[in-house]
Structures are given as structure tokens and as C-alpha cells.
Write a structure and sequence with these properties.
Shape: globular
Strand order of the largest sheet: 1-2-4-3-5-6-7-8
Distance between the termini: 31 Å
Helix content: 40-55%
Order of helices and strands: HEEEHEHEHEHHHHHHEHEHH
């Protein structure tokens, strides 16, 4: 395998049947190492974590998964892929992995990106999921969120589902590419775009946007002061999707939270500065 292939190779080799459809997942690292779970955001998949996951797997048991409706996981017309549903599914997976109800000191550490942050926060604050530590990377957690373009797509999902294939692909490429401050390599960009194309992928792209509503963060935003575990908030200094000021504000609302700025990185810190992010997370996770 060449160096370029190693950087783009990523396979989720296990399956879990969740309440919102089939979930694809994988685990890296020694089975007896401290567990870490990585959550992706939208419109991404666990693929964005591949470099960081491999780095962390040297000292941890790293769990990665594609949320229902994303990446390699199931996509279907009647599927609930809302943030509320994803938080429930996350709880189901923690239980299936034997990480739910773990004793003190044995809980998993959780690292979440984008709306994965909302998923992790909802699971913790609303459903009682227990974590050892929590790292939030450029997360969706504070209102208001969602760009004008994002809201336009969500409000007119049935119209955009009918776009010609080439036009839809071009739209998704432009949208995904804008998450990087330095630009994504063609192979990486195509890997992120491909799950949103085709008969199942195209409607799934607009479906997940239509179901992502700010009320899901509104329901937990007032409770961040209740969090009683070590929290690290990481943010790309050049994030054009969610301003750095949101990251600083989020850290200020969580007792004892630390804030870490990643210079030169956009919203997709995992792609723009994977080494810097891996170092920050390794130091925090211990």
C-alpha cells in the first residue's frame, strides 16, 4: 500500500442494528487499552477521523462509527437521523460495546466534532451517558447555528433532491470543500462526497439537513454548567463555519473547561492539522 493509499484507506468492518438503522463501526488498538469513542459531524463520516484514530490507537482502544444516514451506514427514506435519534443510537452503541454503566475510571473518553458535539452532550445530559473525559472539536452546541445556505437546503429538501446528478455532486463538493481552510486533496474530497451521491445518497444528504433543528441544542444549552468532568474545547483558528468566538464561549460555560486553538485549521481540523489535533487530544486523554 502506498503512502497516499494509506492516508485514504478506511474500512468499517462491523455492523450494529440500531433503532435508526444499520450502523457500521470499527475498533482500533488493544482491546484492554483505555477506551476512546470518536464522533463525526455533518456532512461527514468517521473517515475524517482516520489519521487521529490511528494515532490515538497506539495507547487507546478507539471506537469509530458512521451515524445512521451517514457514510457507510444505512440510508433510507423513512429514517430518523435527527440529533435526538443520533444521541439515542450513541447510547445504544455504548451499551453494545460494553462501555455503558462502567465503573468509575473505566468510562470511555469521548471526542466529538461538529454536530457530534451535540450528540455527545445530549447523550450525557439527557440520557445519563457517562464519560471519563470529553473533547469538543469545532462543535455545534450554541445557538444560533446553520448558515443561510444550510437553512435554504433544509427548508427545500424535496426540491433539491430532484437536482440532476452532476449538479448535486457539484453542490456537495463545494459545500464539503468549504469546511477546510487549506483545501482538501481530490481523493479525500471525493471520499467525503461519494456517500451523498447515487439513488440513496442524494436524498439522504438533504434529509439529514432537514431534520437537524436548532431545538436539539436549545434543549441542552442551558445545562452546560452541570457538566462535571474534564472537558477540552479545540477550535480551528480559521473555521469559516463556526467562529472561534463560539468555541471560547462554550468553554466559558463548562466548569473547568480548557480551550485550545489550532492555528491554520478550518472547520475540518482533522484534515487541516491532524498532527496538531492528535497531539492536543493525546495530551488531554492521558
Amino acid at each position: 500500500m502506498t503512502g497516499a493509499e494509506w492516508k485514504t484507506e478506511w474500512t468499517l468492518d462491523r455492523t450494529y442494528r440500531s433503532s435508526s438503522g444499520e450502523v457500521r463501526w470499527a475498533a482500533l488498538g488493544a482491546p484492554d487499552a483505555p477506551p476512546v469513542v470518536l464522533l463525526h459531524g455533518t456532512p461527514f463520516s468517521s473517515y475524517v477521523w482516520r489519521g487521529v484514530a490511528r494515532a490515538l490507537a497506539d495507547r487507546h482502544r478507539v471506537f469509530v462509527w458512521d451515524m445512521p444516514g451517514y457514510g457507510a451506514s444505512e440510508k433510507r427514506a423513512d429514517q430518523d437521523v435527527s440529533l435526538a435519534a443520533q444521541a439515542r443510537v450513541f447510547g445504544e452503541l455504548l451499551d453494545a460495546w460494553g462501555l455503558a454503566g462502567a465503573g468509575a475510571g473505566a468510562e470511555p473518553a469521548v471526542v466529538a466534532h461538529d454536530f457530534g458535539g451535540c450528540v455527545a452532550l445530549r447523550a450525557h445530559l439527557l440520557h445519563g451517558a457517562r464519560y471519563r473525559r470529553l473533547a469538543l472539536v469545532d462543535v455545534v452546541a450554541l445557538a444560533p447555528w446553520g448558515s443561510p445556505a444550510y437553512r435554504l437546503l433544509g427548508a427545500n429538501d424535496k426540491v433539491f433532491e430532484q437536482l440532476p446528478t452532476a449538479l448535486h455532486r457539484a453542490l456537495v463538493r463545494e459545500y464539503v470543500g468549504s469546511a477546510s481552510a487549506v483545501g482538501l486533496r481530490d481523493g479525500v474530497l471525493e471520499r467525503l462526497v461519494e456517500p451523498w451521491c447515487g439513488e440513496a445518497g442524494q436524498p439522504a444528504f438533504y434529509r439529514q439537513i432537514a431534520q437537524n433543528d436548532q431545538r436539539f441544542t436549545d434543549e441542552v444549552e442551558g445545562r452546560y454548567g452541570e457538566i462535571r468532568l474534564p472537558v477540552l474545547v479545540c477550535w480551528g483558528a480559521a473555521d469559516a463555519w463556526i467562529p472561534v468566538e463560539r468555541g471560547r464561549e462554550l468553554a466559558s460555560r463548562i466548569p473547568g473547561a480548557r480551550f485550545r486553538l489550532i492555528e491554520g485549521a478550518g472547520h475540518l481540523v482533522q484534515e487541516d492539522a491532524p498532527a496538531e489535533l492528535a497531539v492536543a487530544l493525546s495530551g488531554f486523554l492521558g
